[in-house]
Write a structure and sequence with these properties.
The protein is 51% helix and 13% strand. By secondary structure, the protein is an alpha+beta fold. It is elongated. InterPro entries: Nucleotide_cyclase. Keywords: Membrane, Transmembrane, Transmembrane helix.
């Protein structure tokens, strides 16, 4: 018998597809694009109507109303989509807040607002009048109602908190991704606590916004109403005078005109002007007939008031330049009068309140910003405190322990504090272990070791990786003799130099790979050749400027060996070649290392500094990768063929001169300020040492060290030497010697000049037969 409850493959397939579609839609809803769109929409609905009143004219209203309608549709779509696809959203706290915030948009859209209000016989911003319009004056209750309506709009501010949640939400905080059985998870507990506090802050702030207007003392200006009342009775006296005698007129025509002009100015308060646009009253000058007052001239003050042509009349023309909410109608009709039928007569006045409307819009924007800041700061503060106190400490310890067990190199880059709080001793201890491992391996070495470790075992079958790098070799001059002289003190000496070498190299994207007997191996990506040269130059400059290192020339042990002839110096080389990097060792000892003939070639190039009496030598493979700006400060010095090198190559140098380095003592800097780790951006000694504000190649034209080192080179020296070098390559050695001797006259003692001259003179200034343009160096 068939099982009626068995699920068919088609139903199972359809269910799977629905789940995938639901997850995709949820990812879109939670995605960054939707968050940015809704953020823009939220900001617009918060300030759009106030911007309309403050910064635009009536002609642009329809465009604003269309955008408000689109925002309303987007909010509705968002509520529906969240209700369907977001877990625990439907009928939640934020669901109702979104509903109320969406409803608060309706008063800003006349297309929806006006038909709804007409069902209840209410017309908002009424400026058209007739004799059936009720005659009332402003009251305090009306002021409270106006404030209440404005306060409802502030409910939209709760979306500020939602924006904060959009941009700080993590997948781990989503209840759908949490293990429901893990009730003690710090992330889940912290999220619940943060949501509860956020809700209470929102409710508290909204209650304050709703209740504060009721607790404030309000003053209402009824000058317009009472002024219109006086004009009504004075103007009506013209009708009584015609019926019962001229003596019943309250005043003459000049006084009447003066009253009208004064009434038109009744709204000049604190420098604000609310002009009278239209006046419909009994006219004293026309026997008290109720009519439009077109113009009134006051002979006393010599002022004239004229009604506004487009904004006059019981029904305002569509050509009126002011919005309905920018005009105010004042109506007066007597409740008790001596003449029969006078109760049906009413006086009307219409004022231009645009300036008041603009001031209110500005104030509304300021209040919205202030309340929004309060809501956002309160929500962020509570969430941050929850994360700091509950989530972060617990999760960090758990994560650190897991990572340290799985991979010792996955640690946080924290600085170990000298005073460790008792509640975080375990956390700090774990961090110390991780930091020591990372310092030991270095940045590049840590990456190699991370790839070597798989799960809990070390895989020594992992192949190395080959890539092209800039190979930098730095060697302390006479390092073997220094080690023999200083003995135990040599560690302090080498570490002082290592600090400068490592700091300069690291700050310009170099990776320190190896320290060996007073020499350092540093690599850069091939694209960072310019940074590598700049780091080498800075290393030499900092070394010769460091007083604690230069003081070694007076060390008794050094003096005993070198007889006051020693100055701490380094020899450097830069070359580009392929390197195989990987881990070498066994289960007993393993270290990241670098293997390549290019490294040996780099060491051979570095040793040429002794022959050429230079501080830095670069291969042509490196020189060709430099930025043209950096190439300008380099000098070609020879073409050579080294043992085990595949082919001959040109070599270059950068002329270093510590004599012209900027002196920090002349800049009133003390020892602490001068230390390399305390150097600040924009320091006059070393431009761009940290947080460079320009490209590295640009520093070759502005850096004080480079300019100082090159300052001592005579202007014609490079040209003479280059000419001599060209004749040297061509085999015309006599001409070459002439140019080189002229160059030596400008810069005596130049190592490359002396070496080339000596080499050519040993062959009687004549190139050997079959001269290939380079020489062999073993």
């Amino acid at each position: 018998m068939m099982n009626k409850h068995k699920v068919s493959p088609i139903d199972s397939f359809s269910s799977t597809n629905r789940e995938k579609l639901s997850r995709k839609i949820q990812e879109v809803i939670d995605g960054k694009a939707i968050a940015i769109i809704m953020a823009i929409v939220t900001i617009w609905v918060l300030f759009g109507d106030d911007i309309r009143l403050r910064a635009t004219n009536k002609s642009s209203d329809q465009a604003f109303f269309i955008t408000f309608f689109i925002c309303l549709l987007l909010f509705i779509i968002e509520i529906i989509a969240n209700s369907i696809f977001i877990h625990d959203y439907k009928f939640s706290f934020f669901f109702w807040l979104d509903v109320v915030a969406t409803i608060s948009l309706v008063p800003d859209i006349p297309l929806i607002r006006d038909p709804f209000l007409l069902l209840f016989g209410v017309e908002l911003f009424k400026v058209d009048v007739d004799f059936n319009t009720s005659a009332v004056r402003n009251t305090i209750s009306e002021s409270y109602i106006a404030r209440g309506i404005q306060t409802i709009r502030y409910i939209r501010l709760v979306r500020i908190v939602k924006l904060y949640k959009y941009f700080t939400k993590k997948r781990s905080e989503d209840p759908n991704t949490q293990n429901p059985t893990n009730n003690m998870d710090a992330e889940l507990l912290g999220k619940k606590l943060s949501d509860i506090t956020t809700r209470r802050v929102i409710i508290g702030v909204l209650l304050l916004l709703l209740l504060l207007p009721l607790l404030q003392v309000n003053t209402v200006d009824n000058a317009k109403y009472y002024g219109l009342q006086q004009l009504y009775w004075v103007g009506s006296s013209g009708h009584l005078s015609d019926l019962n005698g001229p003596n019943l007129k309250y005043m003459n025509n000049d006084g009447w005109n003066n009253m009208i002009v004064q009434y038109s100015k009744c709204s000049y308060i604190s420098g604000n002007s609310y002009p009278l646009l239209w006046l419909y009253i009994p006219n004293l000058n026309n026997s008290g007939i109720v009519e439009d007052i077109i113009e009134a001239y006051d002979p006393i003050s010599e002022n004239t008031w004229t009604s506004h042509k487009e904004c006059s009349g019981k029904i305002v023309s569509s050509d009126c330049e002011y919005r309905n909410e920018e005009m105010k109608v004042v109506i007066y009709g007597p409740s008790d009068c001596p003449e029969p039928g006078c109760k049906d007569v009413k006086a009307f006045a219409r004022f231009n309140m645009k300036e008041y409307s603009q001031d209110q819009a500005v104030m509304s924007i300021l209040i919205t910003i202030f309340v929004g800041i309060i809501l956002a700061v309160a929500s962020i503060t509570f969430a941050r405190d929850t994360k700091k106190i509950v989530i972060k400490p617990v999760n960090k310890m758990v994560k650190t322990i897991k990572n340290l067990a799985k991979d010792p190199l996955k640690i946080s880059d924290v600085v170990v504090r000298s005073v460790v709080p008792r509640e975080s001793i375990l956390e700090e201890t774990i961090d110390k272990i991780g930091i020591l491992l990372k310092i030991n391996f270095g940045t590049r070495g840590s990456m190699i070791m991370s790839e070597l470790l798989t799960d809990t075992e070390i895989n020594f079958k992992t192949e190395g990786k080959k890539d092209s790098y800039v190979i930098g070799i730095i060697k302390i001059q006479d390092s073997e003799l220094i080690i023999d002289s200083l003995q135990e003190e040599v560690l302090v000496f080498i570490n002082k130099i290592a600090k400068i070498v490592h700091t300069c190299s690291s700050r310009w994207d170099g990776h320190i790979c190896r320290n060996d007997m007073g020499s350092f191996l540093i690599v850069w990506p091939e694209s960072k050749a310019t940074e590598a040269l700049f780091a080498m130059i800075k290393t030499s400059a900092e070394l010769h400027r460091a007083t604690d290192i230069m003081a070694y020339k007076s060390n008794p042990k050094i003096v005993a060996r070198f007889q006051d002839q020693y100055v701490v110096n380094i020899h450097m080389s830069l070359h580009i070649g392929e390197i195989i990097e990987g881990a070498i060792g066994s289960n007993i000892k393993v270290m990241p290392d670098y293997i390549s003939p290019s490294i040996n070639l780099g060491k051979a190039i570095q040793s040429l500094n002794i022959i050429y009496e230079t501080n830095i030598i670069m291969s042509d493979s490196f020189y060709n990768c430099l930025n043209p700006k950096a190439q300008q400060v380099c000098r070609k010095i020879d073409c050579i063929m080294l043992k085990n090198a595949p082919e001959a190559f040109h070599i270059y140098t950068f002329d270093l001169s510590e004599v012209s380095l900027p002196d920090f003592k002349r800049m009133n800097m003390n020892d602490d300020e001068y230390k390399i780790e305390n150097r600040k951006p924009g320091d006059p000694i070393i431009i761009g040492m940290a947080n460079m504000q320009c490209e590295v190649y640009q520093l070759f034209g502005i850096d004080n060290d480079i300019l100082g080192m090159q300052k001592c080179i005579p202007s014609y020296f490079i040209g003479l030497f280059s000419n001599g070098l060209d004749f040297y390559f061509k085999g015309q050695w006599q001409e070459s010697i002439q140019y080189i001797e002229q160059a030596l006259g400008l810069k005596p003692g130049d190592g490359p000049c002396l070496l080339l001259k000596k080499y050519m003179e040993e062959s009687n200034s004549k190139a050997p037969d079959g001269w290939p343009g380079y020489r062999q160096i073993n």
